[in-house]
Structure formats: structure tokens, C-alpha cells
Design a protein that fits this description.
The structure is a homodimer of 338-residue chains. Chain A is α/β, with parallel strands linked by helices. In chain A, 42% of the residues lie in helices and 15% in strands. Chain A has 3 domains: 44 residues, Orthogonal Bundle (434 Repressor (Amino-terminal Domain)); 124 residues, Rossmann fold (3-Layer(aba) Sandwich), CATH 3.40.50.2300; 131 residues, 3-Layer(aba) Sandwich (Rossmann fold), CATH 3.40.50.2300. The structure holds a DNA duplex (16 and 16 nucleotides).
Chain lengths: 338, 338
DNA sequence: ATGAAAGCGCTAACAT
DNA sequence: ATGTTAGCGCTTTCAT
């Protein structure tokens, strides 16, 4: 027994397929009486119109592509997963198919895009985190509606970002409020826009307090857990030890904390730590990491709204999610001056 | 400028659409000469046939649905993500669209299935972790090819599982080999098949050594981090303290370790811990958790193979992934008898 | 080996 | 308000 078609329903209702189509799509121009009859038959037979034929005739795939860039870094996965939850939740309102691709997809063929985009099988695409400009150029050329999440690209796509300057300011300010003056700095400068935001926020907070930057304590080339660990080793080997360390990401903080513990020092008694992101794991490290929450689920939710707007031809502005939410846990000690 | 169609290519090559279709799909019955001509035009124009029309005529969606059950438990997410990576990686060979749905999808309508399955828009479905029998019954009724990952369902779908009996045995054996005799047990009995496997492996290892189970140290109703914490509290309040704790999941272990630390005890000096799963976070807790690795990426890879086999009508057996891989880290102390 | 033509299930213009 | 009909872009049967 194969599935019912719109023709079957039409026959059963004694009307034409057009009428059934109108009823299904909630269009005007059907008398209340026939509408009701058709609706009854549709619901009693559990009829669902074949999506493939709609795709063909409407020239719409009902797919939204979500592309993530595969890295070997498991921390990114945490970041992704929360965004994805937001995406899926919001999509329940829209009913698209959320199709995942890994950007390394494309390494196989000559193009830069995942297969689904290459074959024009997505109505829109959402990019998670950093994307190459090459990829974005391809998207532009093909005129595929796109939005960027937490990207630091210079391209002009609607994007949803955090304000890392505010986040860094809030974090540093907290350290200062807790009595810290001697604050080390660990960041990546791999993404210039990210770095400049973070540094701006950090130095603004420090400047307000009349504090200063100690070159021995400035590490700007961390890139992953390991290099953050190394950075911390270097900081600890400097003549004076900072009372607190500001880290541009929780991932850096967690690795640097490990370094401090390996040196036999106590957190937060000997050194305090603060991060940015509030990745899931931060709650579970010892001590739990004080950090600035970047609301990744909200990023997903908003991204979904933006892409649907774009697909429907409505305007879609850039959005910046609140980035000043301090999550106080156990990694920052209050210094009492007596 | 709209996209090229097979007709355009046919015209350019001076042949009929049929021939182009044959060439694209690698079918016999085209002279080498025309085949070559068509191939050249196809590749020079970057022609990719419209997937929607193939979907319609072939009655195939080219979608594989991956359904995850949304829980509030972030640990599950780690588990998912590794599986998903395996799925996506393997899918590069097949080229399906991997479409994600959250099972709570269905709460909106009267059915139990995600929309994509309800409307017959997936060629197959992969279920991650536990699924209700109600859902599986619906799948059966609709004759949708399905495979189960790490499910403890009694239904007869091809499934890819870990052997938690072997895992528990390996873990407990390691504790014993490290000199432990007094071993506490924390597990969930929520999924009977999971529980019986775990208990069987645990007691087998203990029995071989002539050890015994202390009722005070048996907790079988942990269900999440919190309850595992509580279970550990109870164990610590018993007259004698175990030297080691076996935990059926890393998540239980991590929470129970927190409890032990909160009691001012040291791990592994005072109490040793072992878990099962090797979730990402286990590497980062303090001390890093010794555990049994369940290869989740492999589970994803294999699941992809199985579902494609099923879709193509080939046989698809059950697969059990190796479950005896001990990952030694810092949470188990060797007891020296002097 | 190649081409003509029907048809997959729907939508939407166009009649009535 | 309702029906007829022509496609959407492919695959596939059937002629040639």
C-alpha cells in the first residue's frame, strides 16, 4: 500500500486536487463547507502531502544547512552542541530539516563547499564559528542566504556575535573588585578581531583602576590547551607571581589551572582564575571556574530566526548577545587588605 | 540566471535527455564517443542534477534522520557529539543529508515521531541512546529502516552496542589488580539490560578474586550526577570506607569524586575511582579519571554503514563494539601490601 | 545506441 | 467557488 496523494483525497472528497491543495495550504477561495469536508478527510486519513513534489514545484528544499568546521579540539564541540540545541529548538516553529555538514567535507572535491550547498539543496546556511573567506565568497557567488555565528569574519553577512570586549571588561573588573592588582593575561591573537576586543576590554578595566600591564604576564599567542599550559609555565617562572590570571577562553583557563596545580600551587588561594565562555566543562573542573557566560543556546535560537528571515526575504540585522553575565564559582579569591 | 537542467546539457551535447541521464548515472548503453562528449559538457558547466526531481521520481529522500532525545543532562551531549562525528565522517562516502531531530519534537503533535519521519521524508533513521518502545513501534508500522545506537531496547532492530558486562568486568578487574578488595558499586538500574550487564561484569571480577559485596557499598539507583553524589555520601557514612569505587558511568564517577573531595578526602590516596565511557570531560577532572573507553565515534561510523545497508536491502547484523579498553589515568592508586 | 514520451505528486495559472 | 491543465526536472519504458 503506497501513500495517499492529493488526487486520492480529492476523489474521496469529490472535489478537484486544486481545492485540496488550497485547503492544505490554508488559502482563500474555498467555501467553508467544502473546506470542512476536505479537512475532515485529510485528518481522518492522516494525509501529509509529499514533500519531494513540493520541493520540485516550489523550487525549495526545505533544508537548512548547518556547517561546522571539524577540528581536533573537543572544547569546540561543547560550544557547538549548545548552539545546535538552540537551533533545533527554534526550528520546531519552522519545520525545516536541519542538515549537518562538516566543512572538511569539501576537501574531497575541488570546491570549498559541503555537498549539500554545492548541489543547491539548502534554502539557507548557518556557519558555526570561524569560516574561511574562500567559503564565504563561494556562498556569495551562489546567492545562498547565510548567517554567521560567533564568526570574526570581515564579510558582510548577518551574524550573531558575542561582544568579547564587554566580556573581557566584565571579567577583569571582577578580578579588580575582588582586590586583585597583579593580573596576568592569556589570550590568542589568532583571530585579530577577537584579540583586539579581548585586549580592549581587559586594558580598559585595568586602566580604570590605574593598574598596569606587566610584560612578563602577557601571553597573546595561546592557541589551544597545550599552549595555554605553556604560557602559564612561563608566567609562573617570572620573578613575581600574579595573584590572578585572566584567560580569554575557559579552555585556556582550564589548561592554565592545570599547570598551576602541577606546580603545587592552590587555586584560588595562591592564584585566582577567570575565563570567558562558560563551556559546560567549566562547572566540573576543580575548583569550578568563575567565568563570563556567552549564551550559546541563545545564539542558536537567534541564528535560526535570522536565517528564516533571510530566506523569506525579510531584513536580518546583526545581533550581539549579552556578554556581561558573570558566573561566580570557586576560582577567584577575594583579597582582603588589612 | 536559473540553474542548468538536463535538457540544457542535452541540447548542448546534441543528444537527448535520456542519454545525459544515462551518462550521469553511469549506465550502460551509451557509445564511448557520446559519453565522453556529454561528460565534458557536464564537467565544464559544473552541472549537478536537481536533487528534488530525483527525489520525486525515485521516491527517495536522500535524507537520513538522526534522532536524539533531548535531556537536561549535558553529559549525554558529549556522548552524542562523538557519535555524530563518526556518522558524518562515514557519510562522506554516501552523500546522504544527515538531518537531526530532537525527540521532543513530537510532543507538539499527536504522534511519537519527529516531523521528518512522520512525513516520510527520510530513507532511514538512526536513534541515539535510549528510545521508547512506542516510538519504535511507530517506526515498525511505517516500515522505515532503522538502527539503534547504544540502546537497551528489546526490539529487534539492527543495533550497535557496547558490552557493558565486559566493560564492568575490565574495570573491576583493574581495581582488583591494583590491590583493591573493598570496592563500592554505583550504578543505575533504570535500564534493566544495562544494569544486569554491569552487575554481571562487576560481580564476576569480584567473584574470581573471592571478594564479596558489602550491602552498605551497593548503590543501584543512581540516575544522574546528583543522585550519584548522594549515593557516595551514603557510602562514606557506612562504618567502613571502601578503598575504591566502581561507577557504571563516568558521569557517576565524576560526581561521586566531587562528593569525596567535599568530605576532605584525597583521590586516589584515600579512595580510588574507576568509571565506564571515557567521556571527553573525564580527562579534565582532577585527578583525571581512569575509565573504560566506549568508542563512540566507531559507533557512529558503524551505524552509518548499517543504516545504508538496511536502506539498500542488504542484511544488517547487530554489532558490539570492543568494550575492554582500559584508559589508565590518575584516579586509581596501587595498594602495596607489605 | 539513441530518442520520444509518460509520469512521479504537487502548485498555480487560467478557465468556467 | 471550483475544475482543467500545464509544468517543475528528472528517470525509465518503449520505440526506433
Amino acid at each position: 500500500m503506497s501513500r495517499l496523494t492529493i488526487k486520492d483525497i480529492a476523489k474521496m472528497a469529490g472535489v478537484s486536487p486544486t481545492v485540496v491543495s488550497f485547503v492544505i495550504n490554508g488559502k482563500e477561495g474555498v467555501s467553508p463547507k467544502t473546506r470542512k469536508k476536505v479537512e475532515e478527510i485529510v485528518s481522518s486519513t492522516n494525509f501529509i502531502p509529499n514533500l519531494s513534489s513540493r520541493r520540485l514545484v516550489l523550487n525549495k528544499s526545505f533544508n537548512i544547512s548547518v556547517v561546522i568546521k571539524s577540528t581536533s579540539n573537543p572544547f569546540n564541540d561543547f560550544f557547538y552542541f549548545e548552539i545546535i540545541q538552540g537551533l533545533m529548538e527554534k526550528n520546531k516553529e519552522y519545520g525545516y530539516n536541519i542538515v549537518f555538514s562538516d566543512l572538511s567535507d569539501s576537501s574531497s572535491n575541488s570546491s570549498f563547499l559541503p555537498d549539500i550547498l554545492e548541489r543547491g539543496d539548502a534554502d539557507g546556511v548557518i556557519f558555526l564559528q570561524q569560516v574561511d573567506d574562500l567559503v564565504l565568497n563561494s556562498i556569495n557567488k551562489r546567492n545562498i542566504p547565510a548567517v554567521l555565528i560567533d564568526s570574526h569574519s570581515t564579510q558582510t553577512f548577518p551574524s550573531i556575535k558575542a561582544d568579547y570586549s564587554i566580556a573581557a571588561y566584565t571579567a577583569t573588573k571582577h578580578l579588580i573588585d575582588m582586590g586583585h592588582n597583579d593580573i596576568a593575561f592569556i589570550s590568542s591573537n589568532f583571530l585579530p578581531s577577537f584579540y583586539s576586543q579581548v585586549f580592549a576590554g581587559f586594558s580598559k578595566a585595568l586602566g580604570e583602576k590605574g593598574g598596569f600591564l606587566s610584560p612578563d604576564w602577557m601571553c597573546i599567542d595561546a592557541i589551544d590547551g597545550e599552549s595555554a599550559y605553556d604560557a602559564m609555565t612561563k608566567i609562573l617562572s617570572s620573578p613575581r607571581r600574579p595573584t590572578a590570571v585572566f584567560c580569554a577562553t575557559d579552555m585556556f583557563a582550564i589548561s592554565a589551572m592545570k599547570c598551576v596545580k602541577d606546580h603545587g600551587l592552590k587555586i584560588p588561594e595562591d592564584v585566582s582564575f577567570i575565563g570567558i565562555d562558560d563551556i559546560i566543562i567549566s562547572k566540573y573542573v576543580e575548583p569550578a571556574l568563575t567565568t563570563i557566560k556567552i549564551d550559546k543556546k541563545a545564539m542558536g535560537t537567534i541564528a535560526m530566526e535570522l536565517i528564516v528571515n533571510k530566506i523569506e526575504g525579510k531584513p536580518a540585522e546583526n545581533i550581539i548577545v549579552p556578554s556581561d553575565c558573570l558566573i561566580r564559582r570557586g576560582s577567584v579569591k577575594k583579597i582582603e587588605y588589612i
